[in-house]
Write a structure and sequence with these properties.
By secondary structure, the protein is mainly α. The chain has three helices and no strands. α1 runs antiparallel to α2 and α2 packs antiparallel against α3. The longest helix has 35 residues. The chain starts with 23 loop residues before the first helix and ends with a helix.
């Protein structure tokens, strides 16, 4: 019979729990963006079925990709903000600065795409 190993009490040794997007407004925003992208994809399917030109279909693909990229970016920034607030516990002034910084980060990252 194997001998049980002692459980470490060191929090650094514990496996990190997977974080989820906890803010209801952020979750709703991301889900709404995904539903719009889903509608765009259905539109592309109809365009293909109806025999639309490849140029028009390609333009719609580009629009969907941009929508998904911006949704991913928004979700990432929301997640980063959530994690920073949880781990740093900023006061009101720091929270305002954090919000401004994260908006700037989102703007800078959006310009990369």
């Amino acid at each position: 019979m194997p001998i049980a190993q002692p459980v470490s009490q060191d929090p650094a040794a514990a496996p990190a729990e997977a974080s989820v997007l906890n803010d209801a407004d952020s979750r709703t925003e991301v889900l709404n963006r995904l539903k719009r992208a889903e509608g765009q994809l259905r539109g592309i399917q109809r365009m293909i079925e109806d025999g639309e030109s490849c140029l028009k279909i390609g333009q719609q693909f580009s629009a969907v990709r941009k929508a998904l990229d911006s949704t991913y970016l928004r979700m990432t920034v929301c997640f980063m903000t959530q994690e920073l607030e949880q781990h740093l516990s900023p006061d009101a002034a720091q929270r305002a600065g954090l919000d401004t910084m994260m908006k700037d980060v989102e703007t800078l990252l959006a310009r990369m795409g």
